[in-house]
Design brief:
alpha/beta; Jelly Rolls; globular; Spore Coat Polysaccharide Biosynthesis Protein SpsA, Chain A; 11 helices
Amino acid sequence: MVGSKEGSYGGAGDTTVVPVILSGGAGSRLWPVSRGSFPKQFWSLLTNFTLLQDTALRGQSRGLTNPVVVCNGEHRFIIAEQLRDVGIQDARIILEPEGRNSAPAIAAAAFVVAEQNPDAVLWVMAADAAIEDEPKLHVALDHAVMAAKAGYVVTFGMTPTRPETGYGYIEQGHPIPDLPGVYKVSRFVEKPDKDKAEAFLAQGGYLWNSGMFVVRAQTFLSEIERYEPALYATVREAVEKRKTDMDFQRLDPESFCKSPDISVDYAVAERTDMAAVVPGSFGWSDVGSWDTLWDLGQKDAQGNVTHGHVVLEDVSQSYVRTDGMLAAVLGVDGLVVVATQDAVLVASKDRAQDVKTLVQRLKKDKASQADTHRMTYRPWGHYEALTEGHRFQVKKIVVRPGQKLSLQKHYHRAEHWVVVEGTALVTRGDEQVIVRENESIYLPLGTMHRLENPGRIPVTLIEVQSGPYLGEDDIVRFEDIYSRTV
């Protein structure tokens, strides 16, 4: 299936196809698992891989180039690590200074790819979609790549299986000569109400808009310049002025933030006269809500989908997930029950689309659970909040082998570290101290300090903080190998 040169696509001669993965958004309808600090694409929800990993591996299975990933800076180390975990070492990770919607993100990727090969075909995908039948996807991709080579802006339209109101629709037009399996787009339709969705299903000729696009880099940039010249200019400048940050490409903030906030549908797809669609039935889903995961999951005899330590008695047609504690459910039908370490969601399955309303309420109430987990991931490892009280907080910290925290100090808190596994090298003021298992060290308020792991196994320690203010913003960094400033 692979052509003669690296990244060439067997279905379309020597055409270079570059997967472009958009990793933005918080996936709030999948709260409390998906949150801004660790959204749904980084979770294993359907397979042994995360949604991001599954997405990236689709390109690897066709021998394509390593992906271009567009994301925000906060998630850069999570993305790099998850890609490395599945053998993808050299992904190009482009960092947005702020989210400006899909059109600027795709334009940034197109500019970066076009620097080396303007004729390369971009295969644009969200990081959080599911595909059940990849062989059928590959057939559809063959058709889409051929159409993209001919100058079309191609999207995949999914054959609807129900009157879905959560997706936009595409009205399928006439076949395009000499491009088998490819049709003109008659029009794009916004998310319909239930009556319209039922009418579309009954009438036929309407497809779900998957949000995946296949287009030559130069074609996309030409269409952006034609329809959104301000976006073209600002993103081009942001790419030209980008800086290399370790393995990441950081777009120029001043330029990029001037870009219009607009989706690719509004910017190009609905306006271009070269819009084409490839219909498909390969089990696509945007994994947007808990009822969708119930639809996709392996059901028991009573129609239940479970994950984790779950005990059910007289329960049917329900989705129950726990990521730690035992979840025992009795005598219910059609519920969603999701338990994490710090939050529990109970909802009627037919109201799963409305979970985002709860998240908005939590944000209004300034509840930390709206955006963050007790487990927080950092480039060196992770930490977990165990308990807190008046003027104290306890965390578990895990540092991967060879990694180190920043050289830092705090104005408002002292810290006491107890190593429970591994060996830590601690910088405290002008001294360096080896701290082994069952040993501890005290770091007075205002002391310059650093924790690093010189060994071959993770270092796990318990940190006890004490002081009048314990916020994460009480960190003054003097040196950091990960180029963080805050």
